[in-house]
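Run MFS transporter through structure prediction, thanks.
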Amino acid sequence: MSATARNVPETVDDAHSNRWKALVFIALAQLMVVLDATIVNIALPSAQQDLGISDGNRQWVITAYALAFGGLLLFGGRISDLWGRKRTFVTGLIGFAGASALGGAATGEAMMLGARALQGAFGALLAPAALSLLAVMFTDAKERAKAFGIYGAIAGGGGAVGLILGGFLTEYLDWRWTFFVNIPFAVIAAAGAYFVIREPEGGRNRSPLDIPGVVLSTLGLVSLVYGFTRAESDGWSDGVTIGLFVASAVLLAAFALVESKVKAPLLPLRVITERNRGGVYLSLGLAVIAMFGLFLFMTYYLQIVKGYSPVKTGFAFLPMITGMIVGSTQIGTRLMTRVAPRLLMAPGFLLAGVGMLLLTQMEIDSSYATLLLPAQLLLGLGMGTAFMPAMSLATHGVEPRDAGVASAMVNTSQQVGGAIGTALLNTIAASATTSYIQDHIATATSRPQQQLVQLQGMVDGYTSAIWFAVGILVLSAAIAFTFVTTGKPDMTATAGAGEGAADEIKVPVIAH
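Sure, done. The structure for MFS transporter is below.
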Protein backbone atom coordinates (compact mmCIF):
# COMPACT_ATOMS: atom_id res chain seq x y z
CA MET A 1 0.00 0.00 0.00
CA SER A 2 1.44 3.38 -0.92
CA ALA A 3 2.07 6.16 1.57
CA THR A 4 -0.76 8.16 0.08
CA ALA A 5 -3.18 5.29 0.41
CA ARG A 6 -2.10 4.75 4.07
CA ASN A 7 -2.88 8.37 4.86
CA VAL A 8 -6.56 8.10 3.99
CA PRO A 9 -7.48 4.40 3.93
CA GLU A 10 -10.46 4.49 6.27
CA THR A 11 -12.05 7.50 4.64
CA VAL A 12 -11.73 6.13 1.11
CA ASP A 13 -12.81 2.61 2.12
CA ASP A 14 -15.80 3.92 4.08
CA ALA A 15 -16.86 6.14 1.22
CA HIS A 16 -16.55 3.21 -1.14
CA SER A 17 -18.31 0.58 0.98
CA ASN A 18 -21.25 2.80 1.90
CA ARG A 19 -21.80 4.29 -1.54
CA TRP A 20 -24.93 2.26 -2.44
CA LYS A 21 -26.56 2.93 0.93
CA ALA A 22 -25.70 6.60 0.48
CA LEU A 23 -27.33 6.57 -2.97
CA VAL A 24 -30.68 5.62 -1.38
CA PHE A 25 -30.70 8.74 0.79
CA ILE A 26 -29.31 11.03 -1.94
CA ALA A 27 -32.01 9.75 -4.34
CA LEU A 28 -34.70 10.29 -1.67
CA ALA A 29 -33.59 13.90 -1.20
CA GLN A 30 -33.52 14.49 -4.96
CA LEU A 31 -37.02 13.03 -5.27
CA MET A 32 -38.28 15.41 -2.57
CA VAL A 33 -36.84 18.48 -4.33
CA VAL A 34 -38.18 17.46 -7.76
CA LEU A 35 -41.60 16.53 -6.33
CA ASP A 36 -41.89 19.92 -4.71
CA ALA A 37 -41.50 21.64 -8.08
CA THR A 38 -44.85 20.20 -9.29
CA ILE A 39 -46.76 19.05 -6.20
CA VAL A 40 -47.57 22.61 -5.12
CA ASN A 41 -49.03 23.47 -8.57
CA ILE A 42 -51.99 21.14 -8.05
CA ALA A 43 -52.57 22.42 -4.50
CA LEU A 44 -52.33 26.10 -5.45
CA PRO A 45 -56.04 26.79 -6.16
CA SER A 46 -57.07 25.40 -2.74
CA ALA A 47 -54.24 27.19 -0.91
CA GLN A 48 -55.09 30.46 -2.66
CA GLN A 49 -58.70 30.27 -1.51
CA ASP A 50 -57.85 29.34 2.10
CA LEU A 51 -55.19 32.02 2.56
CA GLY A 52 -56.96 34.80 0.63
CA ILE A 53 -54.17 35.21 -1.92
CA SER A 54 -55.20 37.45 -4.84
CA ASP A 55 -55.10 36.25 -8.46
CA GLY A 56 -52.36 38.80 -9.12
CA ASN A 57 -50.15 37.41 -6.34
CA ARG A 58 -50.79 33.67 -6.64
CA GLN A 59 -47.93 33.25 -9.13
CA TRP A 60 -45.55 34.31 -6.34
CA VAL A 61 -46.16 30.99 -4.58
CA ILE A 62 -44.31 29.40 -7.52
CA THR A 63 -42.04 32.36 -8.35
CA ALA A 64 -40.69 32.88 -4.81
CA TYR A 65 -39.39 29.31 -4.81
CA ALA A 66 -37.96 29.52 -8.34
CA LEU A 67 -36.19 32.83 -7.68
CA ALA A 68 -34.51 31.67 -4.47
CA PHE A 69 -33.61 28.26 -5.89
CA GLY A 70 -32.34 29.48 -9.26
CA GLY A 71 -30.61 32.55 -7.90
CA LEU A 72 -28.69 30.84 -5.09
CA LEU A 73 -27.65 27.58 -6.80
CA LEU A 74 -24.10 28.65 -7.69
CA PHE A 75 -23.63 29.98 -4.17
CA GLY A 76 -24.95 26.66 -2.78
CA GLY A 77 -22.58 24.69 -4.98
CA ARG A 78 -19.60 26.74 -3.81
CA ILE A 79 -20.66 26.37 -0.17
CA SER A 80 -20.69 22.57 -0.59
CA ASP A 81 -17.14 22.66 -1.99
CA LEU A 82 -15.99 24.93 0.85
CA TRP A 83 -17.93 23.55 3.83
CA GLY A 84 -18.11 19.88 2.87
CA ARG A 85 -20.77 18.17 0.75
CA LYS A 86 -22.17 15.91 3.48
CA ARG A 87 -22.56 18.79 5.95
CA THR A 88 -24.16 21.03 3.31
CA PHE A 89 -26.48 18.20 2.21
CA VAL A 90 -27.74 17.49 5.74
CA THR A 91 -28.13 21.22 6.53
CA GLY A 92 -30.11 21.71 3.32
CA LEU A 93 -32.42 18.81 4.19
CA ILE A 94 -33.11 20.04 7.73
CA GLY A 95 -33.74 23.58 6.48
CA PHE A 96 -36.03 22.32 3.71
CA ALA A 97 -38.05 20.33 6.25
CA GLY A 98 -38.40 23.39 8.49
CA ALA A 99 -39.47 25.61 5.58
CA SER A 100 -42.01 22.95 4.48
CA ALA A 101 -43.49 22.85 7.99
CA LEU A 102 -43.79 26.65 7.88
CA GLY A 103 -45.55 26.49 4.49
CA GLY A 104 -47.97 23.80 5.66
CA ALA A 105 -48.84 25.84 8.75
CA ALA A 106 -49.15 29.15 6.83
CA THR A 107 -51.96 31.41 8.05
CA GLY A 108 -51.60 34.11 5.41
CA GLU A 109 -50.01 35.20 2.16
CA ALA A 110 -46.78 36.61 3.66
CA MET A 111 -46.08 33.44 5.66
CA MET A 112 -46.67 31.25 2.61
CA LEU A 113 -44.41 33.31 0.33
CA GLY A 114 -41.68 33.45 2.98
CA ALA A 115 -41.83 29.67 3.41
CA ARG A 116 -41.56 29.11 -0.34
CA ALA A 117 -38.52 31.41 -0.58
CA LEU A 118 -36.88 29.53 2.30
CA GLN A 119 -37.62 26.20 0.59
CA GLY A 120 -35.89 27.49 -2.53
CA ALA A 121 -32.86 28.74 -0.57
CA PHE A 122 -32.33 25.42 1.23
CA GLY A 123 -33.02 23.54 -2.01
CA ALA A 124 -30.15 25.52 -3.56
CA LEU A 125 -27.86 24.14 -0.81
CA LEU A 126 -29.18 20.60 -1.08
CA ALA A 127 -29.35 19.95 -4.85
CA PRO A 128 -25.73 20.63 -5.89
CA ALA A 129 -24.42 18.86 -2.76
CA ALA A 130 -26.41 15.73 -3.69
CA LEU A 131 -25.10 15.55 -7.26
CA SER A 132 -21.50 16.31 -6.29
CA LEU A 133 -21.61 13.59 -3.61
CA LEU A 134 -22.44 11.11 -6.36
CA ALA A 135 -19.61 12.48 -8.47
CA VAL A 136 -16.97 11.95 -5.75
CA MET A 137 -18.35 8.65 -4.33
CA PHE A 138 -18.99 6.71 -7.57
CA THR A 139 -15.73 6.63 -9.47
CA ASP A 140 -15.84 3.22 -11.19
CA ALA A 141 -17.28 3.71 -14.70
CA LYS A 142 -19.88 0.90 -14.54
CA GLU A 143 -21.05 1.77 -11.04
CA ARG A 144 -21.12 5.47 -11.91
CA ALA A 145 -23.39 4.65 -14.86
CA LYS A 146 -25.84 2.77 -12.61
CA ALA A 147 -25.83 5.47 -9.93
CA PHE A 148 -26.41 8.30 -12.38
CA GLY A 149 -29.05 6.20 -14.16
CA ILE A 150 -31.08 6.03 -10.95
CA TYR A 151 -30.45 9.72 -10.22
CA GLY A 152 -31.38 10.73 -13.78
CA ALA A 153 -34.63 8.72 -13.66
CA ILE A 154 -35.64 10.50 -10.46
CA ALA A 155 -34.64 13.91 -11.81
CA GLY A 156 -36.69 13.31 -14.95
CA GLY A 157 -39.70 11.43 -13.61
CA GLY A 158 -40.08 12.96 -10.16
CA GLY A 159 -42.03 15.94 -11.48
CA ALA A 160 -44.72 13.69 -12.90
CA VAL A 161 -44.84 11.69 -9.64
CA GLY A 162 -45.47 15.04 -7.93
CA LEU A 163 -48.60 15.49 -10.02
CA ILE A 164 -49.97 12.12 -8.82
CA LEU A 165 -49.07 12.71 -5.17
CA GLY A 166 -50.30 16.31 -5.28
CA GLY A 167 -53.61 15.13 -6.73
CA PHE A 168 -54.10 12.54 -4.00
CA LEU A 169 -53.16 14.84 -1.13
CA THR A 170 -55.26 17.76 -2.39
CA GLU A 171 -58.30 15.66 -3.27
CA TYR A 172 -58.40 13.34 -0.26
CA LEU A 173 -56.60 15.19 2.55
CA ASP A 174 -55.78 18.91 2.40
CA TRP A 175 -53.48 21.19 0.41
CA ARG A 176 -51.30 21.63 3.52
CA TRP A 177 -50.15 18.02 3.17
CA THR A 178 -48.38 18.89 -0.06
CA PHE A 179 -45.94 20.73 2.26
CA PHE A 180 -46.02 18.40 5.27
CA VAL A 181 -45.21 15.37 3.06
CA ASN A 182 -41.68 16.77 2.61
CA ILE A 183 -40.89 16.44 6.32
CA PRO A 184 -40.61 12.61 6.54
CA PHE A 185 -38.65 12.59 3.24
CA ALA A 186 -36.18 15.14 4.63
CA VAL A 187 -35.84 13.61 8.11
CA ILE A 188 -35.18 10.09 6.78
CA ALA A 189 -32.72 11.36 4.14
CA ALA A 190 -30.88 13.60 6.65
CA ALA A 191 -30.58 10.86 9.29
CA GLY A 192 -29.46 8.30 6.72
CA ALA A 193 -26.96 10.70 5.16
CA TYR A 194 -25.51 11.63 8.56
CA PHE A 195 -24.81 8.02 9.53
CA VAL A 196 -24.02 6.48 6.12
CA ILE A 197 -22.26 9.02 3.91
CA ARG A 198 -18.47 9.13 4.22
CA GLU A 199 -17.21 11.88 1.96
CA PRO A 200 -13.71 11.24 0.56
CA GLU A 201 -11.12 13.61 2.01
CA GLY A 202 -9.11 16.03 -0.05
CA GLY A 203 -11.92 17.32 -2.25
CA ARG A 204 -12.62 20.55 -0.39
CA ASN A 205 -12.03 23.95 -1.92
CA ARG A 206 -10.95 26.09 1.03
CA SER A 207 -10.31 29.25 -0.98
CA PRO A 208 -12.00 32.39 0.41
CA LEU A 209 -15.55 33.01 -0.78
CA ASP A 210 -15.90 35.24 -3.85
CA ILE A 211 -18.42 37.76 -2.44
CA PRO A 212 -18.66 39.97 -5.60
CA GLY A 213 -19.28 36.78 -7.63
CA VAL A 214 -22.02 35.68 -5.21
CA VAL A 215 -23.79 39.04 -5.42
CA LEU A 216 -23.51 39.42 -9.21
CA SER A 217 -24.52 35.82 -10.03
CA THR A 218 -27.45 35.81 -7.61
CA LEU A 219 -28.82 39.17 -8.81
CA GLY A 220 -28.20 38.23 -12.47
CA LEU A 221 -30.00 34.87 -12.23
CA VAL A 222 -32.86 36.31 -10.15
CA SER A 223 -33.33 39.07 -12.77
CA LEU A 224 -33.33 36.50 -15.57
CA VAL A 225 -35.83 34.12 -13.90
CA TYR A 226 -38.09 36.97 -12.78
CA GLY A 227 -37.91 38.54 -16.25
CA PHE A 228 -39.31 35.39 -17.85
CA THR A 229 -41.90 34.98 -15.09
CA ARG A 230 -43.06 38.57 -15.54
CA ALA A 231 -43.10 38.20 -19.35
CA GLU A 232 -45.67 35.44 -18.94
CA SER A 233 -48.05 37.66 -16.93
CA ASP A 234 -47.30 41.18 -18.22
CA GLY A 235 -46.05 40.60 -21.76
CA TRP A 236 -42.66 40.71 -23.46
CA SER A 237 -42.93 44.41 -24.33
CA ASP A 238 -43.59 45.50 -20.72
CA GLY A 239 -41.03 48.09 -19.62
CA VAL A 240 -40.14 46.31 -16.36
CA THR A 241 -39.75 42.98 -18.20
CA ILE A 242 -37.32 44.51 -20.69
CA GLY A 243 -35.48 46.26 -17.85
CA LEU A 244 -35.07 42.93 -16.02
CA PHE A 245 -33.60 41.26 -19.11
CA VAL A 246 -31.18 44.16 -19.67
CA ALA A 247 -30.18 44.13 -15.98
CA SER A 248 -29.65 40.37 -16.13
CA ALA A 249 -27.41 40.64 -19.21
CA VAL A 250 -25.31 43.41 -17.59
CA LEU A 251 -25.02 41.61 -14.25
CA LEU A 252 -24.08 38.24 -15.78
CA ALA A 253 -21.55 39.89 -18.12
CA ALA A 254 -20.02 41.65 -15.09
CA PHE A 255 -20.02 38.29 -13.27
CA ALA A 256 -18.10 36.63 -16.12
CA LEU A 257 -15.58 39.50 -16.11
CA VAL A 258 -15.08 39.28 -12.33
CA GLU A 259 -14.67 35.48 -12.48
CA SER A 260 -11.91 35.81 -15.08
CA LYS A 261 -9.97 38.21 -12.82
CA VAL A 262 -10.34 37.05 -9.19
CA LYS A 263 -7.96 34.53 -7.62
CA ALA A 264 -10.67 32.23 -6.16
CA PRO A 265 -13.77 32.60 -8.38
CA LEU A 266 -17.26 31.43 -7.38
CA LEU A 267 -17.60 29.78 -10.82
CA PRO A 268 -14.18 28.98 -12.26
CA LEU A 269 -14.55 29.54 -16.00
CA ARG A 270 -12.76 26.21 -16.57
CA VAL A 271 -15.97 24.50 -15.37
CA ILE A 272 -18.15 25.85 -18.19
CA THR A 273 -15.63 26.45 -20.99
CA GLU A 274 -14.71 22.77 -21.23
CA ARG A 275 -16.47 21.68 -24.42
CA ASN A 276 -18.28 18.60 -23.11
CA ARG A 277 -19.61 20.15 -19.91
CA GLY A 278 -20.67 23.32 -21.76
CA GLY A 279 -22.55 21.19 -24.29
CA VAL A 280 -24.30 19.29 -21.49
CA TYR A 281 -25.40 22.44 -19.65
CA LEU A 282 -26.74 24.04 -22.84
CA SER A 283 -28.49 20.98 -24.31
CA LEU A 284 -30.01 20.00 -20.95
CA GLY A 285 -31.27 23.53 -20.28
CA LEU A 286 -32.94 23.65 -23.71
CA ALA A 287 -34.53 20.19 -23.26
CA VAL A 288 -35.96 21.28 -19.90
CA ILE A 289 -37.58 24.28 -21.64
CA ALA A 290 -39.53 21.82 -23.80
CA MET A 291 -40.39 19.48 -20.90
CA PHE A 292 -41.66 22.11 -18.46
CA GLY A 293 -43.95 23.61 -21.08
CA LEU A 294 -45.31 20.15 -21.85
CA PHE A 295 -46.14 19.38 -18.18
CA LEU A 296 -48.09 22.63 -18.03
CA PHE A 297 -50.05 22.05 -21.26
CA MET A 298 -50.80 18.39 -20.57
CA THR A 299 -52.09 19.20 -17.08
CA TYR A 300 -54.47 21.86 -18.44
CA TYR A 301 -55.49 19.73 -21.42
CA LEU A 302 -56.35 16.71 -19.29
CA GLN A 303 -58.18 18.65 -16.55
CA ILE A 304 -59.96 21.39 -18.52
CA VAL A 305 -60.45 19.88 -21.99
CA LYS A 306 -60.80 16.19 -21.06
CA GLY A 307 -62.35 16.80 -17.62
CA TYR A 308 -59.92 14.59 -15.63
CA SER A 309 -59.74 14.90 -11.83
CA PRO A 310 -56.39 15.88 -10.23
CA VAL A 311 -55.72 12.24 -9.28
CA LYS A 312 -56.64 10.91 -12.72
CA THR A 313 -54.45 13.59 -14.30
CA GLY A 314 -51.51 12.46 -12.20
CA PHE A 315 -51.99 8.82 -13.21
CA ALA A 316 -52.25 9.88 -16.86
CA PHE A 317 -48.57 10.86 -16.64
CA LEU A 318 -47.50 7.33 -15.61
CA PRO A 319 -46.38 6.26 -19.13
CA MET A 320 -43.92 9.16 -19.19
CA ILE A 321 -42.55 8.20 -15.77
CA THR A 322 -42.24 4.57 -16.86
CA GLY A 323 -40.46 5.59 -20.05
CA MET A 324 -38.01 7.80 -18.12
CA ILE A 325 -37.17 5.05 -15.65
CA VAL A 326 -36.63 2.47 -18.42
CA GLY A 327 -34.66 4.91 -20.58
CA SER A 328 -32.43 5.98 -17.71
CA THR A 329 -31.83 2.77 -15.74
CA GLN A 330 -31.96 0.23 -18.58
CA ILE A 331 -31.02 1.85 -21.90
CA GLY A 332 -28.76 4.65 -20.63
CA THR A 333 -27.04 2.65 -17.90
CA ARG A 334 -26.40 -0.41 -20.10
CA LEU A 335 -25.08 1.56 -23.07
CA MET A 336 -23.17 4.35 -21.33
CA THR A 337 -20.06 2.22 -20.79
CA ARG A 338 -20.19 0.92 -24.39
CA VAL A 339 -20.85 3.97 -26.58
CA ALA A 340 -19.90 7.65 -26.61
CA PRO A 341 -22.30 9.84 -24.55
CA ARG A 342 -23.40 11.90 -27.55
CA LEU A 343 -24.70 8.69 -29.19
CA LEU A 344 -27.12 8.43 -26.27
CA MET A 345 -27.90 12.12 -25.74
CA ALA A 346 -28.59 13.18 -29.34
CA PRO A 347 -30.83 10.18 -30.25
CA GLY A 348 -32.52 10.50 -26.84
CA PHE A 349 -33.48 14.13 -27.47
CA LEU A 350 -34.62 13.24 -31.01
CA LEU A 351 -36.78 10.35 -29.73
CA ALA A 352 -38.36 12.73 -27.23
CA GLY A 353 -38.89 15.14 -30.14
CA VAL A 354 -40.82 12.42 -32.02
CA GLY A 355 -43.04 11.96 -28.96
CA MET A 356 -43.57 15.72 -28.82
CA LEU A 357 -44.33 15.72 -32.56
CA LEU A 358 -47.19 13.25 -31.98
CA LEU A 359 -48.71 15.68 -29.48
CA THR A 360 -49.00 18.38 -32.17
CA GLN A 361 -51.88 16.22 -33.49
CA MET A 362 -53.97 16.75 -30.31
CA GLU A 363 -57.65 17.53 -30.76
CA ILE A 364 -60.47 18.00 -28.26
CA ASP A 365 -61.55 14.37 -28.69
CA SER A 366 -58.09 12.80 -29.04
CA SER A 367 -57.83 9.28 -27.65
CA TYR A 368 -55.58 8.82 -24.64
CA ALA A 369 -54.68 5.24 -25.63
CA THR A 370 -53.82 5.90 -29.28
CA LEU A 371 -52.18 9.36 -29.06
CA LEU A 372 -51.26 10.56 -25.56
CA LEU A 373 -49.96 7.23 -24.24
CA PRO A 374 -47.50 6.43 -27.08
CA ALA A 375 -46.37 10.07 -27.20
CA GLN A 376 -45.57 10.02 -23.48
CA LEU A 377 -43.74 6.69 -23.73
CA LEU A 378 -41.50 8.07 -26.48
CA LEU A 379 -40.92 11.28 -24.55
CA GLY A 380 -40.03 9.38 -21.39
CA LEU A 381 -37.73 6.90 -23.11
CA GLY A 382 -35.94 9.68 -25.00
CA MET A 383 -35.51 11.99 -22.03
CA GLY A 384 -34.45 9.18 -19.70
CA THR A 385 -31.84 7.95 -22.16
CA ALA A 386 -30.47 11.48 -22.67
CA PHE A 387 -30.63 12.66 -19.05
CA MET A 388 -28.56 9.79 -17.69
CA PRO A 389 -25.26 10.48 -19.51
CA ALA A 390 -25.92 14.24 -19.24
CA MET A 391 -26.06 14.05 -15.42
CA SER A 392 -22.86 12.01 -15.34
CA LEU A 393 -20.99 14.21 -17.83
CA ALA A 394 -21.93 17.37 -15.95
CA THR A 395 -19.10 16.64 -13.54
CA HIS A 396 -16.86 14.95 -16.15
CA GLY A 397 -13.21 15.81 -15.70
CA VAL A 398 -13.72 18.37 -12.93
CA GLU A 399 -11.32 18.49 -10.02
CA PRO A 400 -12.98 17.41 -6.74
CA ARG A 401 -12.71 20.99 -5.43
CA ASP A 402 -15.00 22.12 -8.29
CA ALA A 403 -17.53 19.25 -8.06
CA GLY A 404 -20.10 21.27 -6.11
CA VAL A 405 -20.14 24.25 -8.45
CA ALA A 406 -20.16 21.98 -11.55
CA SER A 407 -23.18 20.17 -10.08
CA ALA A 408 -24.82 23.51 -9.35
CA MET A 409 -24.49 24.43 -13.03
CA VAL A 410 -26.65 21.41 -14.00
CA ASN A 411 -29.35 22.47 -11.56
CA THR A 412 -29.02 26.09 -12.69
CA SER A 413 -29.52 25.13 -16.35
CA GLN A 414 -32.60 23.10 -15.34
CA GLN A 415 -34.10 25.85 -13.15
CA VAL A 416 -33.49 28.63 -15.67
CA GLY A 417 -34.70 26.32 -18.46
CA GLY A 418 -37.86 25.57 -16.50
CA ALA A 419 -38.60 29.27 -15.92
CA ILE A 420 -37.96 30.09 -19.59
CA GLY A 421 -40.01 27.11 -20.80
CA THR A 422 -43.04 27.94 -18.69
CA ALA A 423 -43.04 31.62 -19.72
CA LEU A 424 -42.03 31.28 -23.36
CA LEU A 425 -44.28 28.37 -24.36
CA ASN A 426 -47.20 29.65 -22.29
CA THR A 427 -46.98 33.03 -24.03
CA ILE A 428 -46.94 31.33 -27.47
CA ALA A 429 -49.93 29.18 -26.49
CA ALA A 430 -51.91 32.12 -25.10
CA SER A 431 -51.30 34.18 -28.24
CA ALA A 432 -52.38 31.33 -30.56
CA THR A 433 -55.48 30.67 -28.44
CA THR A 434 -56.55 34.33 -28.54
CA SER A 435 -56.03 34.47 -32.29
CA TYR A 436 -58.05 31.28 -32.89
CA ILE A 437 -60.98 32.43 -30.74
CA GLN A 438 -61.08 35.86 -32.42
CA ASP A 439 -61.15 34.20 -35.85
CA HIS A 440 -63.88 31.65 -35.04
CA ILE A 441 -66.10 33.04 -32.27
CA ALA A 442 -68.26 35.06 -34.71
CA THR A 443 -69.53 31.86 -36.34
CA ALA A 444 -70.58 30.36 -32.96
CA THR A 445 -74.19 31.40 -32.44
CA SER A 446 -75.12 29.30 -29.38
CA ARG A 447 -73.47 29.00 -25.98
CA PRO A 448 -72.40 25.34 -26.52
CA GLN A 449 -70.77 26.35 -29.82
CA GLN A 450 -68.94 29.23 -28.11
CA GLN A 451 -67.66 26.87 -25.41
CA LEU A 452 -66.50 24.48 -28.12
CA VAL A 453 -64.63 27.28 -29.90
CA GLN A 454 -62.92 28.25 -26.62
CA LEU A 455 -61.85 24.66 -25.95
CA GLN A 456 -60.63 24.25 -29.53
CA GLY A 457 -58.76 27.55 -29.14
CA MET A 458 -57.00 26.19 -26.05
CA VAL A 459 -55.97 23.01 -27.87
CA ASP A 460 -54.81 25.05 -30.87
CA GLY A 461 -52.68 27.14 -28.51
CA TYR A 462 -51.13 24.05 -26.93
CA THR A 463 -50.26 22.44 -30.26
CA SER A 464 -48.78 25.70 -31.59
CA ALA A 465 -46.46 25.90 -28.57
CA ILE A 466 -45.62 22.17 -28.79
CA TRP A 467 -44.31 22.73 -32.34
CA PHE A 468 -41.76 25.13 -30.81
CA ALA A 469 -40.91 22.49 -28.20
CA VAL A 470 -40.20 20.00 -31.03
CA GLY A 471 -37.78 22.49 -32.58
CA ILE A 472 -36.08 23.07 -29.22
CA LEU A 473 -35.51 19.32 -28.75
CA VAL A 474 -34.01 19.04 -32.25
CA LEU A 475 -31.67 21.92 -31.33
CA SER A 476 -30.76 20.12 -28.05
CA ALA A 477 -29.86 17.01 -30.06
CA ALA A 478 -27.71 19.04 -32.47
CA ILE A 479 -25.83 20.75 -29.62
CA ALA A 480 -25.26 17.43 -27.80
CA PHE A 481 -23.95 15.78 -30.97
CA THR A 482 -21.70 18.71 -31.88
CA PHE A 483 -20.25 19.72 -28.51
CA VAL A 484 -20.15 16.47 -26.53
CA THR A 485 -17.17 14.86 -28.23
CA THR A 486 -15.84 12.68 -25.42
CA GLY A 487 -15.64 8.94 -26.10
CA LYS A 488 -16.90 6.04 -24.03
CA PRO A 489 -15.33 5.61 -20.55
CA ASP A 490 -12.11 3.61 -20.36
CA MET A 491 -13.11 0.69 -18.10
CA THR A 492 -9.60 -0.16 -16.99
CA ALA A 493 -7.70 3.07 -16.55
CA THR A 494 -7.36 4.99 -13.32
CA ALA A 495 -6.02 8.43 -12.77
CA GLY A 496 -5.48 10.99 -10.07
CA ALA A 497 -8.69 12.70 -9.18
CA GLY A 498 -7.27 16.15 -9.48
CA GLU A 499 -5.59 18.65 -7.27
CA GLY A 500 -6.12 18.01 -3.61
CA ALA A 501 -7.64 14.58 -4.07
CA ALA A 502 -6.33 11.34 -2.66
CA ASP A 503 -3.95 9.95 -5.26
CA GLU A 504 -5.37 6.44 -5.34
CA ILE A 505 -9.08 7.22 -5.57
CA LYS A 506 -10.13 5.71 -8.91
CA VAL A 507 -11.82 7.94 -11.47
CA PRO A 508 -12.93 7.04 -15.00
CA VAL A 509 -10.61 8.33 -17.69
CA ILE A 510 -12.52 9.48 -20.77
CA ALA A 511 -11.01 8.61 -24.15
CA HIS A 512 -11.05 11.58 -26.54
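The two ends are 31 Å apart (CA to CA).
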